[in-house]
Amino acid sequence: MSWLVTGGAGYIGAHIVRALADAGLNSVVIDDLSSGHASFVPDGVPFVQGSILDGELVERTLREHEVVGVIHLAGFKYAGVSVQRPLHTYAQNVEGTRVLLAAMQAAEVANLVFSSSAAVYGTPDVPLVTEDLPKRPASPYGESKLIGEWIIRDQAIATAASAHALRYTALRYFNVVGSGDPSVYDSSPHNLFPLVFEALLAGNTPRINGDDYDTPDGTNVRDYVHVADIAAAHVAAAQRLLANRPIEPAYNLGSQNGLSVREIMNAMARVTGIDFTPDIAPRRPGDPDRIVATGELAARDLDWKNRYTVDEMVRTGWEARRAATPGR
Length: 328
Hints:
Elements: E1 2-6, H1 11-22, E2 27-31, E3 47-49, H2 55-64, E4 67-72, H3 79-82, H4 86-107, E5 111-115, H5 140-158, E6 167-172, E7 175-177, H6 192-201, E8 207-209, E9 221-222, E10 224-226, H7 227-242, E11 250-252, E12 259-260, H8 261-272, E13 279-281, E14 290-291, H9 296-302, H10 310-323
Parallel strand pairs: 1-2, 1-4, 2-3, 4-5, 5-6, 6-11, 7-10, 8-13, 9-14
Antiparallel strand pairs: 9-12
């Protein structure tokens, strides 16, 4: 028996594969390597290179590896770029999820953990985001994740009376950082941590987009959560589904308090030993002062908690990034 991890060669997916192994669960990875790395898949874990849009490939993988559940991460994850590439975003995230669900139904696989996003909330005007907050996604990426949740919900309703009724949950989270394994790092060209790391490695000065927000230090506040904690929550959700225990349709994996961009920059200088004063750039349009989610439901059901300090988030991410380029 195995769990299929779609997008398992990516930064978050590769951590989930390792967390499954730590929990004594087998996994198989499918990934088209559009943003993942084959080297991130641990030795001994079956790796199928291909797209979740290939229904025959997905169904064959489910059957051949005796898959009992799917942890679904594969998709196009760049919210800003999705505005310029909406059709690509919907094809990967919406059609990809539909194809996956059809393959699961054909192969009689009935457990699904959907890696969703806090982007489904858009830019809420409340200080603390809860799961029942109205959904107002502000990008095609956020919309595609919300549609994915709807499709999964509808399939669960449609199969409720069948012998293989779909059971699922969606995990929503904001900024994933750090590393739980020195061989796996965040290679995204859009996320704050890798942007700062790349600037420091190149001898450049990182920048802050706006320092006049209505926050204690003037920079916007966001949820930053360690990738190992995110991976652990996905595995806990998978185990809960496998045990047929009650589970919510969605959970926020939030920090409750958040961190400001300046706090992140200070930690970067402190941990790396590279003293710098970040450049201040103009605000990005539409950036709210503060978006932080509560993780109370996930703490109750999935043992969710923040186990890492900001310095540990930076240290583990920095060590993994430097390990990818020896000598730097």
